[in-house]
């Protein structure tokens, strides 16, 4: 039987080991909560969002600058309204920037790509990105290719 | 009042469940946080936590190793071998870490808690404490409940660490995945609050559950050698079943 002091020491070391593991795992193996450090919200309306999901990345020039916060349907215009949470580090986006729903790779996940504009005015929290382009739906592309028309002109 | 002997086949389990809840509420109601109590909690944390380290580390390492081996083998068929760290970390943090740790904990530490309390009961030590005006609920039950609550999350963290180490050993050293790709994929796909934090919430719940069941089965066992043996077996079975069942419920709630 070990002495009480040794036991308490071992228990203390055990707890410290747990804290060390927590810190290591939180920093090394996760995104480190870097996007919870502070973000502002932008909205963008799309006619079709394809299979975009909440938490999908928002990229600018391939660099992740935020994530999709929520997606809902506008009951009047029937457009999908996507709320983007952009990291406050990137708060200098021009207000004529455009948003597009893109796919990483042929079968990869969909993400929102931001293309910066040239306006001197910048987007504020709650602003709306006006220029958007919807997701490309593979079935529609194939349909158009096979049938050979766009559904508008039947001549 | 002994819930084991009264009632029919149908009502007995329900009566037992009610008895277990009453037992837990009594123990929680009598909780006191004196320095003597906290010292005892630390001692129990040593017995259930530090003594479980070897099995947790060994199992964690080999789980990580074999999980990486299997997923790497499957993923390379689709040309996605680099995604192995994503699969490894998500399945570990969300499911395997908390669940396997809780089941191993029940086997290693839960059984010894049950047997210890059962033997105290059989040798009338609990009654002796009562006679000395020491509340056995406070002296015996409470430190063990708290120790399980502390030890299981810590053991889960250590399990996750060693399993990741197993993944690193296989993925980076043996299969030659670039270490930046390995960690980068993991960091991109694991979210701190949702994936990692969710797993840790599970670990806390399972730790509480495992120590509660262990203490309860020890406390209510028949005070004979046979009764203690039966209670020890029941602890493992009950913990394994409830942990897996509750895991499904918690996952469904979190996703």
Structure write-up:
The complex is a heterodimer of chains A (155) and B (255). The model of chain A has no long low-confidence stretch (mean pLDDT 82). Chain A has two helices and eight strands, in the order H-E-E-E-E-E-E-E-E-H. Chain A has 155 residues and is an alpha/beta fold. Chain A has an eight-stranded mixed beta sheet, with no helix packed on it. With 255 residues, chain B is an all-alpha fold. Chain B has one domain. Chain B is elongated, with a radius of gyration of 21 Å. The chains are: A alpha/beta (155), B mainly alpha (255). The interface between A and B is medium-sized, with 24 and 30 residues.
Strand order in the sheet with the most strands of chain A: 7-1-4-3-2-6-5-8
Tell me the series of helices and strands of chain B, N- to C-terminal: HHHHHHHHH
Individual helix count of chain B? 9
The helix/strand class of chain B is mainly alpha
Which pair of protein chains has the largest interface, and what are the residue counts? A-B, 24 and 30 residues
In whole angstroms, the N-to-C terminal distance of chain B is: 42 Å
Query: Regions of chain B with pLDDT < 50 over 5+ consecutive residues?
Result: none
How many discrete domains of chain A?
Answer: 2
General form of chain B: elongated
Q: What is the mean predicted local confidence, pLDDT of chain A? A: 82
Task: Compute the number of structural domains of chain B.
Answer: 1
Strand content of chain B: under 5%
Give the rounded overall mean pLDDT of chain B. Answer: 88
User: Tally of extended strands of chain A?
Assistant: 8
Share of helical residues of chain B: over 70%
Distance between the termini of chain A: 95 Å
| Strand composition percent of chain A | 25-35%
- Overall geometry of chain A comes to elongated
């Amino acid at each position: 039987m070990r002495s009480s002091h040794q036991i308490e020491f071992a228990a203390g070391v055990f707890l410290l080991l747990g804290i060390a593991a927590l810190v290591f795992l939180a920093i090394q193996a996760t995104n480190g909560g870097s996007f919870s450090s502070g973000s502002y919200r932008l909205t963008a309306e799309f006619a079709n969002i394809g299979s975009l999901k909440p938490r999908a990345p928002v990229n600018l020039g391939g660099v992740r600058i935020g994530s999709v916060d929520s997606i809902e349907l506008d009951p009047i215009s029937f457009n999908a309204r996507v709320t983007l949470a952009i990291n406050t580090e990137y708060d200098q986006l021009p207000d004529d920037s455009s948003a597009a729903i893109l796919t990483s790779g042929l079968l990869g996940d969909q993400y929102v790509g931001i293309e910066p504009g040239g306006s001197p005015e910048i987007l504020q929290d709650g602003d709306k990105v006006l220029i958007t382009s919807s997701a490309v739906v593979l079935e529609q592309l194939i349909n158009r290719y096979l049938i050979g028309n766009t559904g508008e002109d039947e001549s | 009042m002994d819930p084991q002997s009264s009632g029919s086949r149908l009502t007995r389990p329900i009566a037992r469940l009610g008895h277990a809840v009453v037992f837990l509420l009594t123990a929680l109601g009598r909780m006191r946080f004196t320095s003597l109590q906290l010292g005892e909690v630390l001692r129990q944390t040593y017995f259930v936590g530090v003594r479980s380290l070897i099995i947790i580390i060994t199992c964690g390492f080999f789980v990580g190793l074999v999980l990486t081996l299997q997923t790497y083998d499957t993923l390379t068929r689709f040309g996605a071998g680099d995604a192995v760290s994503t699969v490894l970390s998500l399945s570990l943090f969300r499911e395997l870490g908390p669940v396997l740790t809780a089941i191993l904990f029940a086997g290693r530490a839960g059984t010894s808690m049950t047997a210890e309390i059962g033997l105290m009961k059989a040798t009338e030590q609990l009654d002796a404490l009562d006679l000395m005006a020491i509340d056995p609920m406070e002296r015996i039950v409470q430190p063990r409940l708290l120790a399980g609550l502390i030890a299981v999350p810590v053991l889960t963290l250590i399990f996750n660490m060693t399993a990741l180490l197993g993944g690193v050993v296989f993925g980076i050293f043996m299969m030659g995945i670039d270490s930046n790709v390995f960690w980068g994929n993991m960091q991109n796909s694991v979210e701190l609050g949702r994936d990692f934090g969710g797993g840790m919430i599970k670990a806390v719940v399972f730790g509480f559950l495992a120590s509660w069941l262990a203490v309860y089965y020890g406390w209510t066992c028949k005070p004979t050698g046979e009764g203690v043996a039966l209670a020890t077996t029941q602890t493992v079975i009950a913990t394994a079943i409830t942990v897996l069942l509750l895991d499904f419920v918690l996952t469904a709630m979190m996703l």
